[in-house]
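Single Protein Entry

Contents — chain, fold
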Amino acid sequence: MSIMKESSESLNFIEHIIEEDLAAGFSKENLRFRFPPEPNGYLHIGHAASICLNFGLGEKYNAPVNLRFDDTNPSKEEQEYVDAIKRDIAWLGFRWANECYASDYFQQLHDWAVELIKKDKAYVDQQTSEQIASQKGTPTTPGTDSPYRNRPIAESLELFERMKNGEFPAGSYVLRAKIDMASPNMHMRDPILYRIINAHHHRTGNKWCIYPMYDWAHGESDYIEQVSHSLCTLEFKAHRELYDWYLDQIVDPAKLRPKQREFARRNLSYTVMSKRKLLELVQKKVVAGWDDPRMPTISGLRRRGYTPTSIRKFSDLAGIAKRDNVTDVSLLEFCIREDLNQTATRVMGVLNPVKLVITNYPEGKSEILHLENNPEEANSGTHEVPFSRELYIEREDFKEDGGKNFFRLSLGNEVRLKSAYIIKGESVVKDASGEIQEIHCTYDPESRSGSGTEASERKVKGTLHWVSIAHAIKAEVREYDRLFLDEAPDAHEEKGFLEFVNPNSLNVIQEAYLEPFLAKATLEDKFQFQRLGYFALDPDSNEGKLIFNKTVGLKDTWAKQNTQAPAQNQPKPSAQPQSQPQKKAINEIQQVGKKLTNLSGDKLETAMNSIREFSEEVSYEELEPLFGTAVKKTGTRIAVVLALGVLLKKGQAKNQSIEEFIASAKADDNEILRAEAEKLD
């Protein structure tokens, strides 16, 4: 069943684009989508947005969706990643129409490139990558032509053939499209079409020594597959002009021409989403692997106990946006709580045990009680749990003198044991250091839960979970916390993201005690350990040793424990949570601005365009205080100039503060800042 809502009111902007195309006469039978991962890492929760969008559209419109691996860089791609990607998508519940690979089209892409050379629209360049980059210019200044830009066609054809035949080392030659070195879009300044990579490809072996760049392979692969709507993340918006130029060179007017449209990448707080950074976490053994339950990968979330339903629900609630934003990780945690509250079997386990002896319960006796599997599900039934004289309870559930605000077990006070009896604390046994070894109590034999006696109806303030010592099974329990302590660990100019790793993100409990029902747990089962949280069996388990991962706690306690995190009230599981508020546009501008001086080329252009988009939502009152930004904070000052330019175009009148700020920017040593400020005269 599609997760997309059917009412017109709930359409996201991508669906509006499709509906407009259909209304304009585009045939519904020609709709075709694709999900195009590069197999250079495992999919993460950010990719789930694109997966759910593309496959959700396929379900909504009954249209085919291809799974296409953009495998154009053999030095970073592996079959392991291909297998993991297919496994994750299938686990999420989606089915692809065709399994495709960009490598399937290598010959066609090569042949089209040869045609470009013959039409004098591509040439072989033998400069270094540094030389080519230095000639690209800046977003405000045109580039300069390569000395090989007018190389004779026959010479480029010969060199390209020799590149294909493996006669040259990597980096010695590239094939570039001949477009416009003065284009305001830096992606159009003679982009590279092919480079030499002497590496074994996971599918084509050593057949090819040249490999197409992503921009060349992307649109042409869409065209070959007759994809109608090529949906990309926002950083490809500036690439759209190049996407269309490449199609212009080869498209047959009688065939469907793909349309590229962009949506915002999904970012999650307290997380990094870059596959390069996730790989670094794996390689430096900060985590145990791509499927470590602390990782934001779909494999890691699955191992931790997340369900396909929860991830699809999260994607639905987080929505499809037109601009990059950060979604609070607590929304993801809400979605898994809501799902597991409805589906997880209730069981009992004790993670920090202390022995409890019921002194008036007959020695050697045990009885079978019944624990409700799930109170949220009417026909979930019950399962048996053994009860005896000696039990384990949580050590923190007992205090000798609890005081009036302690509603668990203390001396002289009563509590109920879950689905069992009411007990009263009587005395303790301590070791030589004063640590409690045993709690002695008495029980009311007439108070068994569900027995219908007057005593069973008696109300006490606390209910504790427990396990029978004689029947308990021992297990390892792994409790997880957020991997990073900072809300945006990779957004700091002066610090690397690894400096924000949470040293307490994993707590391993070697000897937890669980009720015997859990001995038959499978990897697909989900459990609520009463009063503790939701847990799932880990694949490391074997017949002799059970290992359970804590998926999520029963409540969101992070905001209370961490003052840096924005406080919020956790909705009740039955409630519909509101998506997390986006950061104010002025804050986004400052955040992007901090990074500007570390960027160049395409990335710089993309960042500057992003600032201009955010500036559409900024008022002069918000921007004016940033005119006083310190001179050394060049990136922020560039961002302010860009934002000011947008405001002036929208009708903001110049005043003395604006004039003074523009004058100071024009006098700055930074070329980009000066150039952007001069545009405001």
Remarks:
- The CA atoms of residues 259 and 362 lie 77 Å apart.
- The two ends are 56 Å apart (CA to CA).
- Residues 45-61 form the longest helix (17 residues).
- Residues 1-9, 562-582 have pLDDT under 50 and may be disordered.
